[in-house]
Give the backbone structure.
Amino acid sequence: MPGTKSDDARIGIKGLDDVLGGGLERSRTFLAEGSPGTGKTTVSMQFLITGAQHGERCLYVTLSETEDELRSTAAAHDWDLTGVDIYELIPPENLLDDEQQQSLLYSSDLELGETTRRIFEAFERVRPQRVVIDSLSEIRLLAQSSLRYRRQILALKHYFARSGATVLMLDDLTTDRDDQTVHSVAHGVIRLEELSPEYGGERRRLRVIKYRGRSFRGGYHDIKIVRGGVCVYPRLVAAEHRGDFPRDLVTTDSPELNRLLGGGLERGSSVLVLGPAGTGKTLLALTFIQTAVARGERAAMFVFDEEIGLLIQRAVALGIDVRAMIDDGALVLEQVDAAELSPGEFSARVRRCIKEHGARTVVVDSINGYQAAMPGENALVLHLHELLQYLNRCGATTFLTVAQHGLVGDMSTPVDVTYLADTVVLLRYFEALGRVRRAISVVKKRTGPHEDTIREYQIGDHGVTLGEPLSGFQGVLRGVPVLHGEQQSLRGEHM
């Protein structure tokens, strides 16, 4: 990423260091703000632990939590705090004295001055290279005015700068959310947020509001707190990923399907499979996975709607041994819970399959499930656009399935992503000669010509089997075709 510096004070969270262009610039003061529970303390402790692991002296000044609470947090994450000095700045002993609270001699000026003096004493004792102050809300309450608060923060900043320390100040925004006094003082500002969806677990995200003299990755980035610390999933920017690969054709074992697709699919393209429930969208995608693995390639499949065990069992009955492909390391099959997975984490999973597993065929089944992880349709389209562009530039052929509402006649699609895909395959039910049948057609292909016919297909022991074009029928896509001309033989007509 442009602007990355190797001498920065790295936080130790790979995704966050990537967002910041390397980490925190040394000898500068930074602000991490967010309401309680967004992960500020976790991030700051990882910042200090990383420094201690590299032999740096580290100091955690806490005004809001006790040392015992901080050590309990570290133990919950299996962290070793060796090399991290924790200074618990408790209020003066007479602060809770009722008589002292009513005395005119004990003012906020005295308490603010005492707090600052004790912070400096702790710093002089440790002489740290990394400092965390948690939190500024206590100092803001003592200052009582914006002017005094700003002057106090400036005094802290200049003191630490002369000592060459890298400082991370925390603000829990419990006193004044609109007070941005520290924004203009700090060298960089990181905002952490927590979202509460109507269903599912909480969602967290962060945004770098400013970073003087540094290119950083803007926008929102999903984060997750797990045992071991914070995981940050940088926003995917497809333009940063470009690769060279041969644009050869990806084919299947079915000559009829290859002809319908105009010879096959161009590598590095995206395919959208549309159709009502039960038409075989997942099976069609598995057909391409099977042929890719047979060519010696690797594949990845992300399943939102179906339980993996049932999918494997169903595929075996249709002649596709998914378990064998997984055991051979040729296929990564992941179950995705849209209610518990953020879009950023999903993109990170896909990228890991491309970079680490070497997948060249990727299936997302289905967009209906993926949509549940999005706050709105516009966000869904934007995320999909970047994800498809990334996969295309990596040379991966991507298959997306969308279950349309309805069974026959007019169909409605929950979200229109047809313009994003390079190829659109349409699956339909239709009734003929007293039986429910299936039809397949290709309605769009950017990368070359394709058949404009409609073919009947069947799902059997050998997967998907296509018949000849239904040239003798009209109205197949409407569900009730009309025979024109001579009687045309249909697949399984005499079964």
